[in-house]
Write a structure and sequence with these properties.
Helices cover 41% and strands 15% of the residues. By secondary structure, the protein is α/β, with parallel strands linked by helices. The protein has a seven-stranded mixed beta sheet with strand order 7-6-8-9-5-10-11. It has a two-stranded antiparallel ribbon with strand order 1-2. α2 runs parallel beside α4, α6 crosses α7 and α7 packs across α8. The protein starts with a helix and ends with a strand.
Length: 342
């Protein structure tokens, strides 16, 4: 167990040294620490939590070490056993769990509300966790179908004429949703469910005129909806249905003069009972560590160019608003949840 805890070539210990600022000397099952008392205490706590994860059979990667350090640094009293509760395991290709406090809060927002709106940068797990919750609900037979949708808006490119039938034309826009789905169940099972209509992946335009009963509906890339499209989507919900809406308001691909339906909805729906909001921050990114640094670098560059603050809900101007300009940071560290019915 000590070898697994220390990592290959003691890489876990070296990562702890660089991240926390201590010196660690390991010999067999004995570990000695050198550094400031609070830094040593944090290192001991991190190693203890990593040991518990290993005891449960969970592999510990460098990313896991970074997540644990960040969580315990922000909130020393947090119980990681609660954070790492399994979201999806039965019938899945892999065990899926929250990786940080922000994701844990996001899961709670989804559980407590019929409509959950998640806003934040790429790599925070907004759509992925929403899909995991949908698949878990399907396995528990709480709903009878999953509907995955997103607006078919080109991200700064002009794809021109695409050959093929309608399904082939829209498939490139839906590919990120298929990728996440196939990560949670084998491709043959996913294809069978899609053929039966149990799982539907379709452009947002296909939702018009429908009533979605007994469904878990995920709207991805919602920052690229117009106000009319967002209202249309929200009014599709029927009996025993739940919706998760995700988007990054710093990556709006609509024409400059068109206001994002997601930004508008955060203003209009604030305080509506049954709707919960979750705002992620760059520090909540769970992809490659460089992704967080890249997002923060772009935010800093945007702040230097802008130099002013715009109110959420204003029509989109020539400069798209950064996250800090879309209603402020939610309470708490590492992302925050707010609930329309509180």
């Amino acid at each position: 167990m000590a070898i697994a805890l220390y990592g290959d070539g003691e890489q876990t210990l070296r990562l702890l040294e660089r991240s926390i600022g201590v010196r660690i000397h390991a010999r067999g099952n004995e570990v000695r620490f050198e550094g400031e008392p609070d830094r040593v205490a944090l290192t001991r706590r991190v190693l203890g939590e990593l040991y518990v994860l290993l005891e449960r059979g969970q592999a510990v990667r460098n990313a896991d070490v970074r997540h644990v350090i960040r969580m315990l640094s922000a909130e020393p009293d947090v119980q990681l056993s609660d954070v790492y509760e399994n979201i999806l395991s039965r019938g899945s290709r892999r065990v899926i769990r929250a990786k940080n406090l922000a994701q844990r809060r996001y899961v709670d927002v989804i559980r407590k509300h019929d409509v959950a709106i998640a806003i934040g940068p790429a790599g925070t797990g907004k759509t992925y966790l929403g899909m995991a919750m949908a698949v878990a609900s399907l396995h528990r037979k709480e709903i009878s179908r999953i509907i995955l949708t997103r607006p078919a808006v080109e991200a700064g490119e002009r794809l021109g004429f695409l050959p093929g039938d309608l399904a082939e034309k829209v498939d490139p826009y839906m590919r990120p949703l298929y990728d996440a789905l196939h990560d949670m169940m084998d491709m043959e099972k996913a294809q069978r469910l899609i053929e039966r209509g149990t799982i539907e992946v379709a452009p947002l335009a296909f939702m018009r005129g429908r009533t979605l009963n007994d469904s878990f509906v995920i709207l991805d890339e919602a920052q690229n909806t117009t106000g009319e499209q967002m209202k249309m989507f929200l009014t599709r919900l029927g009996e025993n249905s739940q919706a998760v809406i995700t988007g990054d308001v710093t990556q709006v691909d609509l024409p400059i003069e068109t206001q994002s339906g997601l930004i508008e909805a955060t203003r209009i729906l604030k305080g509506v009972r049954g709707i919960g909001f979750m705002r992620f921050e760059p520090r909540d990114v769970v992809r490659h560590p460089l992704v967080q640094s890249i997002i923060e670098a772009y935010d800093r560059a945007g702040s230097r160019r802008g130099g002013d603050t715009e109110e959420v809900g204003r029509a989109a101007g020539p400069r798209r608003k950064s996250k800090s300009e879309t209603g402020g940071t939610a309470p708490g560290r590492g992302g925050g949840a707010s609930e329309g019915d509180e």
